[in-house]
Design brief:
alpha/beta; 2 domains; 47% helix; binds nicotinamide-adenine-dinucleotide
Length: 355
């Protein structure tokens, strides 16, 4: 698959990827390499990765516990300290080998350590390949509030090796699919249509589908790297989706939702808002709802839950002057940014979601 070029870095794929990575590391004469992993990627991905790492530069492994609850400033403080103890300097580089938690966290740590050192993302989940590793956004949560602290700092390279997905649990694969569907809904109806009959797709299509998802994201980010306009499109489904994810994280009577699972609910709800604003046809809405529900099922959200979820909307990063701003669909493949919606309409969206 073709290498993609982002603003100031490249996204390299499969068999080209590791030779390009090795060449880059040597050419830039890094003093030391730090490979950030969680316990799962340490066990399942590191043994696949290390034989490909061919360099004289010394390296160290830094391992953290997996999971969104560790994507916080405390974990950063621990890793900043470990980097200091291990003698990291400004010519050191971090390789983030893991899912979106590792790429978000590792990117933020690198962007801020000694005012910024280089990092490379080597995503190992579908979600991180098609979304989190590309575009330079990084960060951590405050409590359960998602991505409240962070920067936009580009990696030096993104290495996509789809072989890593061979050990990824099915539920995590499905979570990544949500962001691929989002890319179709906001920017490419043809891509969205490919997912209408999943029986027509098999694993051999996966590489091409991943490549296309990254092309779509990269094109949007390149038009608006700092998210003043069109980049907000990538937040479709995330205004309510993040609030739902946070609510399920903090509510211990509920089993936590994966990021993509929460975003799938958010996309159905925000498609309903688009319908109510006359931006999409009823048949579009039904197609979106049926496609997402057939993949992700229906999450139980009570009346109490939805009130608490709506209260969390005040923390959304797109809000301006205290107003919640949605990204809505404008037909399939297009969006309308900065849309305000009445709370009663949001409540109706939850009501309709149940049916
Ligand atoms: P994750 O990093 O928690 O990974 C999911 C699970 O899979 C973890 O338990 C991990 O240890 C395990 N895992 C990783 N690779 C594996 C492999 N190859 N085989 C077996 N297990 C493996 O979560 P995620 O879904 O990858 O990412 C979600 C995060 O990404 C969220 O924090 C979200 O906010 C963030 N995100 C960021 C952006 C961005 O633009 N920066 C975009 C979308 C999502």
């Amino acid at each position: 698959m073709n290498t993609l070029f982002a603003t100031d870095y490249s996204i390299v794929f499969n068999k080209n990827a590791f030779p390009v990575l090795n060449h880059f590391l040597d050419e830039n004469k890094y003093s030391k390499i730090f490979i950030l992993v969680d316990e799962n990627t340490s066990e399942l991905c590191l043994p696949e990765f290390l034989p490909h790492l061919s360099t004289e530069i010394p390296f160290e492994i830094i391992e953290i516990e997996s999971g969104e609850i560790h994507k916080n400033i405390q974990t950063c403080t621990e890793i900043w300290s470990v980097l200091t103890e291990l003698g990291a300097d400004r010519k050191s580089i971090i390789l983030n080998l893991g899912g979106g938690v590792i790429t978000d966290l590792g990117g933020f740590i690198a962007a801020t350590f000694k005012r910024g050192i280089d990092f490379i993302n080597i995503p190992t989940t579908l979600l991180a390949m098609v979304d989190a590793s590309v575009g330079g956004k990084n960060g951590v949560d405050i409590g359960v509030l998602k991505n409240q602290i962070g920067t936009i700092t580009n990696p030096k390279m993104v290495v996509i090796e789809t072989e890593f997905l061979s050990t990824l649990p099915q539920r995590q694969m499905r979570s990544g699919l949500a962001e691929m569907l989002k890319h179709g809904l906001i920017a490419d109806q043809e891509y969205w249509n490919l997912f209408q009959d999943l029986s027509q797709l098999d694993l051999s299509d996966l590489d091409a589908l991943i490549h296309k998802a990254i092309v779509i994201k990269n094109q949007i980010v390149q038009q608006d790297p700092t998210e003043n306009g069109i980049r907000k499109a990538l937040n479709f489904g995330h205004t309510l989706g993040h609030a739902i994810e946070s609510y399920f994280l903090e509510n211990h009577t509920k089993s936590a939702l994966l990021h993509g699972e929460a975003i799938a609910v958010g996309m159905i709800l925000e498609s309903y808002l688009s319908l109510e604003q006359n931006l999409i046809h009823p048949e579009n809405y039904l197609q979106i709802k049926n496609t997402l529900k057939s993949l992700f099922g229906t999450v139980e959200i009570s009346d109490n839950d939805r009130n608490s979820i709506c209260e969390l909307l005040i923390h959304d990063k797109k809000n301006e002057y205290g107003k919640v701003q949605f990204v809505l669909l404008d037909g399939i493949g297009n969006v309308k940014l900065n849309q305000e919606v009445l709370t009663t309409v949001i409540m109706s969206a939850f009501e309709d979601y149940k049916s």
